[in-house]
């Protein structure tokens, strides 16, 4: 059974930092592409960043230079380091896994999702 478990969310002030983690089990992690998505109240789920199985990373424009996505295949975990946080980053953050190894911006490409972790940035 595949499980993705996010952690690291919380409440921070504008300009602060958080590090999200997503621990995967039940899959051959190194062959999967991984991505972080987020969903704010009343809005659609939004792709934030992705890392392919070959560790190519891509980011949505609004987080470039502030967020860094990495993976540790030995720990079956991906990390999203979020710096210089802004109130508009407030959302529930989800990690997702793509067995094809990519980092698509289409949610239909992801077979597995975590339960989400809340990130709240106060102004």
List the helices and strands and how they pair.
Blueprint: E1 3-7, E2 10-13, E3 18-25, E4 33-39, E5 46-51, E6 57-59, E7 67-72, E8 77-82, E9 91-98, E10 112-113, E11 117-122
Parallel strand pairs: 2-11
Antiparallel strand pairs: 1-3, 3-8, 4-5, 4-9, 5-6, 7-8, 9-10, 9-11
List the main descriptive attributes of the protein structure presented here:
single chain, seven-stranded mixed β-sheet, four-stranded antiparallel β-sheet, 11 strands, 0% helix
What does this molecule look like?
It is a single chain. The model has no long low-confidence stretch (mean pLDDT 97). The chain is built from no helices and eleven strands. The strands form two sheets. Strands 2, 4, 5, 6, 9, 10 and 11 form a seven-stranded mixed β-sheet that branches. A four-stranded antiparallel β-sheet has the order 1-3-8-7, with no helix packed on it. The protein is 0% helix and 50% strand. The protein has 123 residues and is mainly β.
Describe this structure in a few short sentences.
The protein is mainly beta and 123 residues long. 0% of the residues lie in helices and 50% in strands. Strands 2, 4, 5, 6, 9, 10 and 11 form a 7-stranded mixed beta sheet that branches. A 4-stranded antiparallel beta sheet has the order 1-3-8-7, with no helix packed on it.
Structural class computed from helices and strand pairing = mainly beta
Distance between the termini: 40 Å
What is the total tally of β strands?
11
How is the main sheet built?
7 strands, mixed
Report the uncertain regions: none
What is the string of helix and strand elements? Answer: EEEEEEEEEEE
């Amino acid at each position: 059974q595949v499980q993705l478990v996010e952690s690291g969310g919380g409440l921070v002030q504008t300009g602060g930092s958080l590090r999200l983690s997503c621990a995967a089990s039940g899959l051959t992690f190194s062959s999967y592409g991984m991505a972080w998505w987020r969903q704010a109240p009343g809005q659609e789920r939004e792709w934030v960043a992705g890392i392919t199985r070959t560790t190519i990373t891509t980011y949505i424009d609004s987080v470039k230079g502030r967020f860094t996505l990495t993976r540790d295949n030995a720990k079956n975990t991906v990390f999203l380091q979020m710096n210089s946080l802004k109130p508009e980053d407030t959302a529930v953050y989800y990690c997702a896994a793509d067995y094809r190894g990519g980092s698509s911006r289409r949610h239909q490409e992801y077979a597995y999702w975590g339960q989400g972790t809340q990130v709240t940035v106060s102004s």
